[in-house]
Amino acid sequence: MNWIGDMNGAMAYIEEHLTEEIHSEDVACIAHVSKFHFLRIFLALTNRTLGDYIRQRRLSLAAADIISTQDKIIDIAYKYRYETPEAFTKAFKRMHGVSPSQARKNKDKIKAMPPITFQITVKGEKQMEYRIEQKESFNVMGIAKHFSTRDGENLKAIPLFWSDVCQNGQCADLQQYAGSLGTLGICYNFDKEEESIDYMIGVEGNNHSNKYELLNIEANTWAVFESIGPMPHAIQKVWEKIYAEWFPATGYEHAGGPELEVYLLGDSRAEDYKCEVWIPIIQK
Questions:
Q1: How many domains does the chain contain in total?
Q2: Nearest C-alpha neighbor of 55 from the set 17, 18, 7
Q3: Domain for residue 125, yes or no?
Q4: Are residues 187 and 97 in the same domain?
Q5: Is the pTM of this model over 0.85?
Q6: Which domain holds residue 151?
Q7: Which of 43, 35, 44, 45 is nearest to 255 (CA)?
Q8: What's 233's domain CATH number?
Q9: Terminal CA-to-CA distance of the chain, rounded, Å?
Q10: Are residues 76 and 187 located together in one domain of the fold?
């Protein structure tokens, strides 16, 4: 497995095609993984979406062209895939803080997004422990909400969502129906290009009372990771390590289905609080 080489090959492909249309499916194919897995890994490792990275690279090269050549700004806009000069100017100003014409006239300082390359860093930390679980299809009932993942907004908003559901009594009501997995936090309907997810707080079971939404989780093979420590920081650290360290080091790929946070009984603020992250996987 040459994970680093495959990812860098995908980055080189992007760099070579910045003046052409780039499809995320083609980029993922170069990395020899599914589109879903590539977009999820890329976001976790770079803290930006693939679409944002491509836009920033194009605007970086466009700024260099504006300053170092006499090419018409409209031609530079079309070169880097902008359909109108207005759209180009708006995007350019958002990134660089000045308009294209101001940058050329005053040679103002501009921001640059350098090409990304990946490398292996040996940290000497304890290896991540995990187990593999097989679970048949099951239903979850709960309360769902749509979240933006732009700039990590979900990392702040989802804990607040939990706080609201617990304070209004819905969490306690759900827990009386809880199955063997206890209370669940479920991430699903991932849209990495639109930068959004759905998140449900729920429990195993069918919504007999029609008070809650119903979600079916298909049969999957799951990689299960333990989180130890106070919420939400401990589990957020586990998520980071799964995508930054575990996936690159194994022969597994994300299966594309919902991800589960399994919250067990105990004080979630305690240093020894235990919960789990369940990731649907397939063998590469």
A1: 2
A2: 18
A3: no
A4: no
A5: no
A6: 130-283
A7: 35
A8: 3.20.80.10
A9: 9
A10: no
- Tell me, what amino acid is at 73? I
Q: Name the helix (H) or strand (E) containing 214.
A: strand 213-217
Q: Do residues 90 and 152 both lie within one domain?
A: no
Does residue 80 sit in the same domain as residue 7? yes
Distances (CA, A) of 160 to 37, 88, 167: 27, 37, 10
Given a cut of 80, whether residue 152 has pLDDT beyond it is no
Query: Is 168 part of a structural domain of the chain?
Result: yes
Tokens of residue 282, six digits: 């397939």
Secondary structure string (H, E, C) spanning 73-131: HHHHHHHCCCCCHHHHHHHHHHHHCCCHHHHHHHCCCCCCCCCCCCCCCCCCCCCCCEE
CA dihedral 241, 147, 184, 209 (to 10 degrees): -170
Q: At what angle do helices 50-68 and 3-16 cross, to 10 degrees?
A: 40
| Alpha-carbon gap, residue 18 to 84, rounded angstroms | 17
Tens digit of pLDDT for each residue in 176-216?
Answer: 888 888 899 999 998 866 778 999 999 998 766 678 999 99
